[in-house]
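Action item from last week, closing it out:
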Amino acid sequence: MGAGKFDDFEGHDNLVALFLAKAEARGDRPFLWRKQDGEWVSLSWNEVARRVAGLAKSLKKLGLEKGDRVMLVSENRPEWCIADLAIMAAGCVTVPTYTTNTERDHQHILDNSASRAIIVSTAKLAETLMPAAVRSSQAEFIIGMEPLRVAQTGQLAIHDWSDLVQGTDADVAALAEAMEDVGRDDLACLIYTSGTGGAPRGVMQHHGAILHNVEGSGTVLREDFGLGDEIFLSFLPLSHAYEHSGGQFLPIGVGAEIYYSEGLEKLASNIEEVRPTIMVVVPRLFEVLRARMIKAVEKQGKMPGYLLDKALTIGERDFTGKKRKRDFAMRMLLSRTLKPKIRKRLGGRIKAMVSGGAPLNPDIGIFFQSLGVTLLQGYGQTEAGPVISCNRPKTGLKMDTVGPPLKNTEVRIAEDGEICVRGELVMQGYWRNKAETRRVIKDGWLHTGDVGHIDEAGRIVITDRKKDLIVNDKGDNVAPQKVEGMLTLQPEILQAMVSGDKRPYIVGLIVPDPEWALEWAREQGKKYDFAEMQDNPEFRAAIRAAVDRVNADLSVVEKVRKYEFTDEPFAIENGEMTPSMKIRRHVIKERYQVKLDGMYKG
């Protein structure tokens, strides 16, 4: 096939038609990969198309009709993609949910979406799901990708995945013909925003919104990197809009292969095995990779440490526009010594790592750029497909921006600094919530709730969340995410949240880094007890020194005057983080209100 096989991601009327066109072009070439018995095994494009057609036909036979909602509860795996496409191919609407959801979360989404069917991957995930499903007045049947051990199901019928996928005569050609009746305005999925406050809301994403993202992001890849046989490593939850569009439908659009990671613990080895060309990740992963790389280099002795310092110094100069000719020799040395080793740790053929889902500290971006790894920061939200913009080498990488808007995306800045977006990527609204829809979409413009401006090169610069801005008792504005990002770059600090609305100064809640704390205890000859150490004056002084280093680079109103330790790390499990690793401020503030108030006494 010629080069055109990668370029036909535009002009399709729905996501299933896009997939079927790619499947026809790619045929028996590998598409979806998973680790099985220690080996990577694949499903071809043709085989996936047959399974999608078979499952779609079975869903219709079970009585599902156009517009019915189907909940999908699964970790990232080939069946996730097949189920998603088959639900849409049956004319239904996918309702993806997080595997970390509680029974209460499942109940809310089931009741709000009125899903008639549920597809779940494992018996373990079904344990949390089943009580909610049994209480649901709408759910009629559950499909288990693996056998489900269910003692009592009430009115629910249980069906086996393999029977439904392979138990009918899959007619891919008939499916392609049927999809001609599905348009870009038809509803594709309801993605419930994890949100940093309140109950999750169902975002109505139509086919056109996600296709808009595929076309815009695909254009960036094609024009800035050139498209070939791309390899994506899927790591973030597919139930998140960012991975759903960027980690599933973008690879489909450019005819890429998708490998499903085995999880965070094995991510580093998966990267070296798979050797991806594109990775879609969240900032927290970059922070972890950065810390590990620095440790690995430091352990290798003085020379690697010296080279790392030189690389970062040169990278900082490049970022600030102070490039020097006399750095040429050092650049050549770095390109032959340190940089190849770093690239090897990332598989050796990475074209770009794309950060999204939460703000990226510019220092993280500079770090990776300095080491020869192209890092692109994207920006968006579930209500916008979700990608609104992305940094591009073509327009100049500037790590304190999120790049220019995607193709066919309008962005304007409101009088109060709020970023507003218009285009096909904007959601149709919140499911069964007209009041909230009217609040965020006005005259076709999506009001993002983010504050920022557009620079001279047309790149969006985000200063903070409108609702997260801290306004102190003197009326000064402080962007908490900036301060928190700087704190968590310190090796001593794992997580942080700052507060100070209507108060005289900024205070912080800090989670010390447990690995650093263990090393500190050993060096001090002390017993390692994480809880007891937090009351140790010397340990507190060490953390205070880290806070003071950050304060040295902050304005007077931004400085963190006092801090307290949290009882435990912020986590998805305790409700203090969203699945995309953003902190839930209202939850944390409610839990630690006494500590926060105490820092303003005396």
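Closing note: Residues 24 and 46 are 7 Å apart (CA to CA).
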